[in-house]
Design goal:
By secondary structure, this protein is of the alpha+beta class. It contains 23 helices and 24 strands. The strands form 5 sheets. Strands 11, 12, 13, 14, 15, 16 and 17 form a 7-stranded mixed sheet that branches. Strands 2-1-5-4-3 form a 5-stranded antiparallel sheet. β9 and β10 form a beta hairpin. α2 runs antiparallel to α3 and α21 runs parallel beside α22. The longest helix is centred in the N-terminal third of the chain and has 111 residues. The radius of gyration is 69 Å and the shape is elongated.
């Protein structure tokens, strides 16, 4: 084997080629002789089978001749000839026996022998019937012979022929199978032989080609080797140039670059790497990099994490790695590591890059903090490019406008303003922001749901140094609630102004009405009964009373009326008025009262609360011209800080609610907005004053409560009155004792009134009742009058509260200090003064409210003097 390896390559190839050819010759010879032997054996078997077929055909032919001759002669009734067959038939039978014996040695398998046995039995049966036929022929019994041939002898012959045909078929199939098997075998052997010949040809051609190639390679080998040496020299020169270029690029890079081989030994490192990793100069030149790694580990903010990361990268040399490294001095590096792989796919080492991202991280953190702040603010904050396309919108803005996060960059500023490009923000505000840098004001936004709402907004135009707009930032605040509150405040201020005006007018008017009422009653008392002037005086008094009723309504609306509050149970008030409700509604409407169990008490003027309920029931009756249902329901309710936001004037706490609901026509939003305005009515001219609901509003507000309304067109209206709860129990009203119509007296009264007509009327009335009356126009005059001789002791000071120079309260204090036993009685048509707090009389103070009648004045004076 060793000598074989030392032989030249060509000799080894030729030797191998000869061995292959020899093997192919041996295989071909073996196939040739085997084919000849198989072919000979097959020919012998075919000859043997053909021999059997010849024997079978011969004995079949003899038996057939005998049968044909016998059948002809018998069927022709040629009995003389039948008798002549006595010698021929036995000879045929003997020959047939000899044929059967000749065939027996050629039987090769069990199937042939079984068929042979079956044929022998059929042949014997045939010869037995033939003997019987011959016997009938010799006896000249042709008819019986013919019948026997037809019934038994001929069928026996047919059975014999059938069995012999079966034997013939079997032998022929055997011959055909043998020939087919031989043909298949010969085809396969020839195919193999042809393949071997083709293989030998291919081997010869291949060997020639290989030898030719080897010769050509050997001829050019030397030239190629010389070319390779030259190319290597050129490559080394180019490599040195590329290495120098690479070092120059690495050293000029602003990033730190480190290249190591497979063992981790440094190949190339720039100065930026040492600067970023804080490696001292005496360590930077270490080629193994071990001291560098130790130094960087010590300066890392988390050394353990740094080491684990380096170990992972070393353990996975084929992976690309990117992470961030923090140093103790606050420096943050973006570290990137990747394997160095050549064109041949082989890994030669690893490259590391280090980039200082400290400022970028700080900017990102600042940006994240800013975004977190913007996302948490409740105001809408957005940023758009110079063309008005949105770049960013915070969570509050997305929620307010119904925008998804993914749709921000697909929308523009104009998409959220009604009328698109023609909206004032786009036509005026943005140009102003571009020109002046900022714009602030109010506008209207349009959400994706189609809802429009007002906003206050500030638009800033952020410009470059060259003055070109880079982007717009907008801060918006939904002022829907503020607008509602402003509208409510405006309405409240308007109604407050109207109330003050109404109260002022009523105050002045009440003094005039008091004089008119008093003078008309005095006139009636002086005129004789039945005089024509009495009717005129009565008409004057009634007209003044109607005017007084209007002034009371104006005072009630302006919350300027005088209240006499007491502890009330609204269940008792409402149920006691049930008959009144039914009379007001007539038979067209049903009344249902639902009193709440354990209803808390309230502090209110019973008469005023009854007036509120009556006004509301009348309003409900007008709303149900065709009948319906009126429901009055009471309940204890509680308002927390959040639930009173819609009603700024309503304080949190416990309240008693009275709900009055009708099933009438309902009200539109426009009507509800002006419902409590004085003189506003939906009735025809002359059918209402428009003061009913405004009076209710003033009484409830002056009582410290709130009134609200809910209504739908053609579905009815519900008024809800809320009054503060009190812990005291309501008392059973005491029966008032009746006084004489015009009580008399003899005491001295000092009357102080700035209205001359009223002063004259009151003085005349009191003098007629027996009193001594001194009059004064104001407090200064009254004090001077008291110093005069002959005035004497003053039993009662009857003074108006609101007067020029000195108020009635100040006058009363001075008189009380000088004369402690003098009784004080105030008169007033106004509730904003020192003796009345929010319409409620101070404790221990006697007051007669204007306008008053002469009888009311006489009773009140007598009541105060008798205290």
């Amino acid at each position: 084997m060793k000598k074989l390896k030392e032989m030249p390559l060509a000799s080894q190839v030729w030797l191998a080629f000869g061995a292959v050819c020899a093997i192919l010759l041996v295989i071909g010879g073996w196939f040739f002789f085997s084919l000849r032997a198989i072919e000979g054996r097959n020919q012998q078997e075919q000859l043997r089978t053909l021999k059997k077929l010849a024997l079978v055909d011969a004995m079949d032919e003899r038996l057939g001749q005998a049968q044909a001759s016998l059948s002809r002669k018998v069927l022709a009734f040629d009995f003389a000839k039948i008798q002549s067959l006595d010698r021929a038939i036995p000879a045929l039978r003997q020959a047939n026996d000899a044929d059967f014996r000749d065939v027996l040695p050629y039987l090769d398998d069990a199937a042939e022998r079984n068929i042979y046995t079956e044929a022998a039995q059929a042949r014997n049966s045939y010869w037995e019937q033939t003997e019987k036929v011959m016997a009938f022929g010799r006896a000249n019994r042709g008819t019986e012979a013919t019948k026997l041939i037809n019934e038994k002898q001929a069928p026996a012959y047919d059975q014999y022929r059938e069995v012999m045909n079966k034997l013939v078929v079997h032998l022929e199939a055997d011959v055909n199978d043998s020939a087919a098997a031989l043909t298949t075998l010969i085809f396969r052997i020839r195919t193999v032989g042809d393949s071997l010949v083709l293989l030998a040809i291919l081997i010869v051609l291949g060997a020639s080609f290989v030898f030719g190639g080897i010769a050509r390679r050997l001829n050019h080998y030397n030239q190629k080797l010389q070319d390779e040496v030259t190319a290597r020299q050129q490559g080394e020169e180019q490599l040195r140039w590329k290495t120098a270029l690479l070092e120059a690029q690495v050293n000029s890079s602003l990033d730190g670059i480190l290249i190591v081989d497979q063992r981790g030994k440094k190949i190339l490192q720039n100065q930026r790497t040492s600067d970023l990793l804080k490696i001292p100069p005496h360590i930077s030149d270490n080629q193994e990099g071990e001291q560098q790694l130790r130094w960087v580990t010590q300066t890392a903010k988390n050394p353990a994490e740094f080491i684990e990361r380096v170990k992972y990268i070393v353990a996975h040399p084929d992976e690309v790695s990117r992470d961030e490294v923090e140093h103790k001095d606050g420096l943050t590096l973006d570290r990137y590591s990747a394997p160095v792989i050549g064109k041949d796919g082989k890994r030669y080492g690893r490259i590391w890059t280090f980039r200082d991202i400290t400022e970028r991280k700080r900017s990102e953190e600042a940006r994240d903090r800013l975004i977190a702040i913007l996302e948490s603010t409740t105001d809408l904050v957005s940023i758009a490019d110079p063309q008005g396309h949105l770049i960013y919108m915070n969570r509050a803005g997305r929620k307010l406008l119904g925008v998804n996060d993914g749709d921000i960059t697909k929308t523009a500023i104009r998409d959220f303003h009604p009328n698109g490009e023609s909206h004032p923000v786009l036509t005026d505000a943005i140009p102003t922001a571009v020109r002046e840098g900022v714009w602030s004001g109010e506008s209207v936004l349009l959400s994706r749901t189609g809802r429009e709402f007002p906003v206050s907004q500030v638009i800033l135009a952020h410009k470059s140094k060259e003055g070109k707009v880079q982007f717009f930032s907008t801060v918006m605040r939904d002022i829907t609630e503020r607008k509602k509150l402003e509208a409510k405040l405006l309405q409240s201020q308007k109604m407050e102004t109207v109330g003050k005006l109404a109260g002022g007018i009523a105050h002045e008017f009440n003094s005039i009405l008091t004089a008119i009422i008093g003078q008309s009653e005095l006139l009636q008392s002086e005129l004789p009964a039945g005089a024509p002037s009495v009717k005129c005086a009565v008409e004057i008094s009634q007209a003044a009373s109607r005017a007084a009723s209007l002034t009371r309504q104006l005072l009630a609306y302006g919350r300027k009326q005088f209240l006499q509050p007491e502890i009330l149970n609204l269940n008792r008030v409402v149920t006691s008025m049930e008959n009144v409700f039914r009379l007001l509604l007539g038979g067209n409407a049903a009344v249902q009262i639902i009193p709440a169990p354990d209803l808390k008490a309230v502090m209110a003027d019973a008469g005023q609360i009854e007036q509120v309920i009556i006004n509301m029931v009348i309003n409900a009756c007008d709303a149900m011209p065709n009948g319906g249902k009126l429901t009055l329901e009471t309940a204890n309710v509680s308002f927390e800080e959040e639930s009173v936001g819609r009603y700024p004037e309503l304080k949190p706490g416990e309240y008693v609610m009275l709900a009055i609901t009708d099933t009438g026509l309902g009200m539109s939003e426009e009507v509800k907005a002006r419902l409590f305005e004085p003189f506003f009515t939906t009735k025809a001219v002359g059918q209402g004053t428009g003061l009913g609901l405004s009076t209710c509003y003033g009484i409830v507000k002056q009582s410290g409560g709130h009134i609200g309304v809910y209504s739908e067109l053609r579905r009815g209206t519900t008024f809800r009155i809320y009054l503060p709860q009190v812990e005291e129990k309501p008392k059973t009203p005491a029966q008032r004792s009746s006084l004489p119509a015009m009580p008399r007296g003899t005491e001295t009264i000092l009357l102080v009134e700035d209205d001359p007509a009223l002063r004259e009327m009151a003085g005349t009335l009191l003098r007629r009742q027996g009193y001594t009356v001194w009059t004064a126009a104001n407090g200064v005059e009254a004090l001077g009058l008291k110093q005069q001789e002959g005035v004497g002791h003053i039993d009662l000071l009857l003074t108006d509260v609101v007067m020029p120079h000195m108020s009635g309260k100040e006058l009363a204090d001075r008189v009380g200090a000088l004369y402690p036993h003098t009784r004080i009685l105030f008169t007033s048509a106004y509730t904003e003064n020192a003796i009345i707090l929010q319409g409620v009389l101070n404790k221990g103070v006697a007051l007669l409210q204007k306008p008053f009648t002469p009888s009311a004045l006489g009773r009140k004076v007598r009541e105060v003097l008798e205290q």
